[in-house]
Structure formats: structure tokens, C-alpha cells
Design a protein that fits this description.
Rossmann fold, globular, 4-stranded parallel β-sheet, 6-stranded mixed β-sheet, alpha/beta
Length: 392
């Protein structure tokens, strides 16, 4: 019996899942290059040495209102490890913490409840600072339009601050290339008209891991800097255990690009030399809900050659303790009603000749649009063995 352990259940335990395979199967695990956690001193060093920007203490001096946009719990950045130092630095600059607001960059995702907020930004920040969810349908200000005609509507609590900081995660993403940077503002703290405009199917593109010459990213960076006035970012590259492999602080573009360079190294994953019968893809750390789990396919989409044989099988492993999840644009019944799998197929340069099935104790077939869902690993192995036999 071959056994492999993989991480799963981001934000809901971050524990390990043990997978067992028949002894006659040829099973090989492909891991990202990965990196070690930078530790508390690494966090302080990054905050002490911002990229193309002054230290946060200098930026904050004389400011009356500070707003911090933080990406939501569907993203892996452990902001709780950063917030205590950020709060101390703001206080040293003379900022009254009663005048610091955290705006959770939920975009059109579900609002975060207190338990989520404590997980994301830590108990001290959750109890001391004024924390709000982005509400895309209300409490927004109209800041005009971008050069390309995108209406710019942004959360009032963020837009009206004297100092605007964005805390986010740099992970591969199909449209802006990588998350992080401007994305915590657009769409994170934007109004529904802005979010819907930039996510029109005609404006989406396949740009996974590409940030230069990327129209989607160029647009959100223009809006975030020139229209909203994002002053500063603190971005995290996580390792395979959702620890901090790198922290990038400073200018919205320069710091983000430095983070992207590390992300390309940390997330780089060797691919099989020849196409395989079955590819098992882990959605962690984007496995809080089904609608995020299509990110598991990024490793296949970014491969320069086919990974799965024609007619083969792709298994997406996603804990999805929140079930299907909620998205105010792409969820069922919403204006861009596309299942996650469909979105990935449309955006992918890979010929999707393989069948996709899911392993999750918390999902149903209805949640994933009719595809097969297996709640017990043994049942999935039995299904695969019935199709492929002993020689895989």
C-alpha cells in the first residue's frame, strides 16, 4: 500500500490528509519547490525595508484616518502574524488606533463573521480596531471612471482614509496573473458595478502567472493607484503549509513584482515527463469552498505540455468545509453564472479531454454542478480501480 500525506483544510485546522493507494499502482507525488517560514524577525525586517517607499511610520505620520484593506478568508495570507507589528508602527507614528479601520476585501464573497475575523487578523486586532466587511451594494463612493471606462465605486471607509494600506496574498490567478497588490482594492473593496465591469466575460483572459502586458492587471493597478489612491501594500507569499515564505512591503507595483518573483520559485512544481492516467490535484490552501477549488487546476494549466492522457481522470481534492461557497457574480443564479470547473476550462490553454471528479467530505454532486463527488477516499479508489484495474 502506497501512502501520501497532503495538507488541507485551510483556516479550518490546516491539518494533514493521508491518502492510500493500491500497491500495484505507480504513484508519484509532485511537490512545489517550497520555502521555509521567515519567522518573526523576517516579518520585522521586511517592514523595516519597504520597496520603493518610505517606512510605514513615515507614511503614517500626521495622518488622521488609516484604512487597511485585508483579503478575506478564502485567501491564504496569515495577516494575524503581521497586524501586531503594523499596529505598533502606526502608534509610533502618532496614529490613534481608534482612527484605524480594517476593511475586509470580500469583494462579492460572503461576509466574514467574528470567528473568521479573529482567524484572519488575530484576536488583538479584531478586538482593538474597527473592522468592516466590504458591502458591494452600499456604502460606496463614486470616484469616476478609469481610462478604459470602468466605473470606479469603492467602499467609503477605505476611499476616504488619509492613508490606504493593502494586505494580501500573492498566489497564481487566472486573470491578473497573481493575486495580491492592487487586487485587494479592485475587486476586494469595490462596489458591484466596478466588480461586474472588470469581470465581464469579454474582458477576462487566460493570463495565469503573467503580470506584465496583462490588461486585467494593468486596469486594476491604474484604478487602485490613480483613482483610489492605494498608498502601500503588505503582501505575503505562503509556503505549502500556509506559513510566510516571503513578505513584500512598499509600493503597490514594485513590492508586488518582487513578491511575484519569489512566488514563481516557491510554487514551481515539476511535472510528469509523460501524460498520466490520473492526476490528483490538491486545492489547498484555496480549499475553503468549492468555488475557490478550481485553483487546484493551476498546476495543470501552467504546464507547457499535457499532464493527463486523453480520456484520463482529474481528481480535485478540496476540503470545502463551507460547501459550495458564495460568489455574487459567478455563483448559481448570479449574472455570470458559471461553475468553477467551466470557468477553468474556458480560461485554460490545456485541452480538457479528462473527466473531473472531486473528493470532499462536505460537497454534494449538486454543489459541483453534477460532476461526481466522493466523500470517502476508499470509494474513490474503488471507482478508479474499476476503470483502470491494477495497472495505473
Amino acid at each position: 500500500m502506497t501512502t501520501i500525506r497532503i495538507p488541507w483544510r485551510a483556516w479550518y485546522g490546516d491539518d494533514w490528509l493521508e491518502l492510500s493507494f493500491p500497491p500495484s499502482w505507480y504513484v508519484r507525488a509532485y511537490w512545489p519547490a517550497d520555502a521555509s517560514d521567515i519567522g518573526p524577525m523576517g516579518i520585522e525586517r521586511a517592514l523595516d525595508a519597504p520597496i520603493d517607499a518610505p517606512p510605514i511610520e513615515e507614511m503614517a505620520r500626521g495622518k488622521r484616518w488609516v484604512s487597511i484593506a485585508v483579503d478575506d478568508i478564502s485567501r491564504p495570507a496569515p495577516a494575524a502574524r503581521i497586524m501586531p507589528s503594523l499596529m505598533r508602527r502606526l502608534e509610533r507614528a502618532g496614529v490613534d488606533l481608534d482612527r484605524v479601520r480594517v476593511v475586509l476585501g470580500t469583494g462579492t464573497h460572503r461576509p466574514m463573521v467574528k470567528e473568521d475575523i479573529i482567524k484572519k487578523i488575530g484576536r488583538a486586532a479584531a478586538d482593538r480596531l474597527d473592522v468592516y466587511n466590504n458591502h458591494p451594494y452600499d456604502n460606496v463612493v463614486d470616484l469616476g471612471s478609469s481610462d478604459r471606462g470602468t466605473p470606479v465605486h469603492v467602499c467609503r471607509f477605505f476611499a476616504e482614509a488619509d492613508l490606504k494600506i493593502g494586505v494580501g496574498s500573492i498566489t497564481p490567478h487566472g486573470n491578473p496573473g497573481f493575486g495580491g497588490g492592487a487586487k485587494v482594492v479592485i475587486p476586494g473593496v469595490a462596489g458591484i458595478d466596478t466588480i461586474a465591469s472588470i469581470h465581464q466575460p469579454s474582458r477576462l483572459q487566460s493570463a495565469l502567472i503573467e503580470v506584465e502586458h496583462n490588461e486585467f492587471r494593468t486596469e486594476i493597478e491604474h484604478i487602485a493607484r490613480d483613482k483610489v489612491g492605494l498608498d502601500y501594500i503588505i503582501n505575503v507569499v505562503t509556503n505549502s503549509h500556509r506559513e510566510i515564505a516571503g513578505l513584500f512591503v512598499g509600493d503597490m507595483v514594485s513590492a508586488h513584482r518582487a513578491g511575484v518573483r519569489l512566488a514563481r520559485q516557491v510554487y514551481a512544481t515539476e511535472m510528469p515527463a509523460e501524460p498520466v492516467d490520473i492526476a490528483i490535484c490538491n486545492a489547498y490552501p484555496k480549499d475553503t469552498d468549492f468555488l475557490q477549488s478550481g485553483m487546484a487546476l493551476n498546476v495543470l494549466r501552467s504546464s507547457p505540455r499535457p499532464v493527463v492522457k486523453e480520456g484520463g481522470m482529474i481528481v480535485i481534492i478540496t476540503a470545502s468545509p463551507e460547501g459550495r461557497g458564495y460568489h455574487g457574480l459567478f455563483g448559481p443564479g448570479m449574472r455570470y453564472d458559471l461553475r468553477c470547473g467551466d470557468t477553468e476550462r474556458r480560461a485554460s490553454p490545456t485541452p480538457w479531454d479528462a473527466r473531473i471528479v472531486y473528493f470532499s467530505p462536505w460537497l454534494t454532486s449538486a454543489d459541483v454542478g453534477g460532476d461526481a463527488v466522493f466523500r470517502r477516499w476508499d470509494d474513490l479508489i474503488e471507482h478508479l480501480a474499476a476503470r483502470y484495474g491494477d495497472e495505473v
